[in-house]
């Protein structure tokens, strides 16, 4: 795919970029390694100073960067601004806590002294997606730099301006040269970067296919990976749920980022005694959403990020309907050249249908009616994915019990799944492995070293 900015709202090619040559990439890797040899010896205080300055830049210029996000991938400007502000939170969180998270841990053994030290690994490659082009990169960047690592970003080909903007923000914040650089390369060039001896680890957020390829290559090179892949989160509505709140949140959770979020609710598993009531509210709320120009304040969702993504979603819906899914809210695309896709709700979604088995990365909700809590848990777990999920019940203890039985990296009771700097983020099954955010995230790319003194 060419590296270019295409405005998904209009289809206009706004700017094209010349990819870095392999020689340029090698120079950047060498420069990253040189930067690492100095950066690893800086204090947490010094790193935190730059990180906090970076947070200020993100907060003060949230609209400027938000506009780049909206231009490149089509999310409403207000959501893009919120995304940039969330990055500032992650910067401040790790600026405040990294020293504690990575402090030596004394351990009682028969030695005179034994401890676990956490030391940076070196150059880490981050392969990031277009859906939250700032947030996904920052949740790597903030802990990685605070730990004393340096970063190389290979961003999705449709968000080069976002990638370059982040490099610029790091520079403006005063970080030393080359601690964070963007590589303008295609996915074919990634293997050579992973192979490079200076590159010590890889983190990828993206598709299952991309994750498998990167993990395979990194495995050959014996390099650590963290993979944050797809999700098909269950949204379980039990008979004692607050249905108004559940239906309102169901829409928010399906439509977050225009439906293009790995942790968006995708499978709505509803107990039969309240299914019709829930569905009616869900449908009404979904129908009320407004679309249009991403830069307009009054819209709720913009276009999908690319026309081919809208085409793929359309095909998944078509195949599901051919196999018996019932359309209870009709939507989809108005013309074949458009990336706009109106929300849809499908009912009677059954095993074997794309809406049941695959991730639907756009505004299509799959509804499954079940007889009780036990069947809801069974259906929720009948998925290749295991990223997040939600359960709705007014009995919090029951919610907690159900949450423990659903096989995912995160469960939310009476709330939509969302990431926050304090809580670990990541999945199980085909949703990947490893964790981002929290103290667990910063410990992924460090040498957890045992030191024994007699
Ligand atoms: O697409 C997945 C990440 C979404 C988020 O962290 O809010």
UniProtKB/TrEMBL annotation:
It holds the Pfam family Aldedh. Signal peptide: none annotated. Residues 3-451 form the Aldehyde dehydrogenase domain. It comes from Pontibacter mucosus. Keywords: NADP, Oxidoreductase. Belongs to the aldehyde dehydrogenase family. SUPFAM superfamilies: ALDH-like (SSF53720). The keyword Oxidoreductase applies. This is Succinate-semialdehyde dehydrogenase/glutarate-semialdehyde dehydrogenase. One of its GO terms (molecular function) is aldehyde dehydrogenase [NAD(P)+] activity. The keyword NADP applies.
């Amino acid at each position: 795919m060419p590296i270019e900015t295409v405005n998904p709202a209009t289809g206009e090619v706004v700017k094209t970029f010349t990819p870095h040559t392999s020689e340029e990439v090698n120079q950047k890797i060498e420069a990253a390694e040189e930067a690492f040899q100095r950066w690893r010896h800086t204090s947490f205080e010094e790193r935190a100073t730059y990180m906090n300055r970076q947070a200020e830049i993100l907060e003060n210029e949230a609209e400027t960067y938000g506009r780049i996000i909206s231009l490149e991938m089509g999310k409403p400007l207000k959501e893009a601004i919120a995304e940039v502000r969330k990055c500032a939170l992650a910067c401040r969180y790790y600026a405040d806590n990294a020293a504690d998270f990575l402090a030596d841990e004394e351990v009682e053994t028969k030695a005179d002294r034994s401890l676990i030290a956490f030391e940076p690994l070196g150059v880490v490659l981050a392969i990031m997606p277009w859906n939250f082009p700032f947030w996904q990169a920052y949740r790597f960047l903030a802990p990685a730099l605070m730990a004393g690592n340096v970063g190389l970003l290979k961003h999705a080909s449709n968000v080069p301006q976002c990638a370059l903007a982040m490099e610029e923000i790091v520079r403006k914040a005063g970080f030393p040269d080359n601690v964070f650089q963007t590589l303008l390369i295609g996915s074919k060039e990634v293997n050579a970067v992973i192979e490079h001896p200076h590159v010590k680890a890889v983190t990828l957020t993206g598709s299952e296919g991309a994750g498998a390829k990167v993990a395979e290559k990194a495995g050959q090179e014996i390099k650590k990976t963290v993979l944050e892949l797809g999700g098909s989160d269950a949204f379980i509505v039990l008979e004692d749920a607050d249905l108004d709140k559940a239906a309102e949140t169901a829409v928010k959770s399906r439509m977050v980022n225009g439906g293009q979020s790995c942790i968006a609710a995708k499978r709505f598993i509803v107990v039969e005694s309240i299914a019709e009531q829930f569905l009616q509210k869900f449908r009404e709320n979904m129908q009320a959403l407004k679309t249009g120009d991403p830069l307009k304040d009054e819209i709720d969702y913009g276009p999908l990020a690319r026309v081919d993504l809208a085409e793929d979603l359309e095909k998944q819906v078509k195949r599901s309907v051919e196999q018996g899914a019932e359309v209870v809210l009709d939507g989809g695309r108005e013309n074949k050249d458009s990336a706009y896709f109106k929300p849809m709700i499908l009912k009677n979604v059954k095993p074997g249908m794309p809406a049941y088995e695959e991730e639907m990365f756009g505004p299509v909700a799959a509804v499954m009616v079940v007889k009780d809590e036990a069947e809801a848990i069974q259906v929720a777990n009948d998925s290749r994915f295991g990223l997040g999920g939600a359960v709705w019940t007014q009995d919090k203890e029951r919610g907690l019990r159900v949450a423990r039985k659903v096989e995912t990296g995160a469960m939310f009771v009476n709330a939509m799944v969302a990431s926050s700097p304090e809580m670990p983020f990541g999945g199980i099954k085909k949703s990947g492995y490893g964790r981002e955010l929290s103290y667990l995230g910063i410990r992924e790319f460090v040498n957890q070293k045992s030191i024994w003194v007699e």
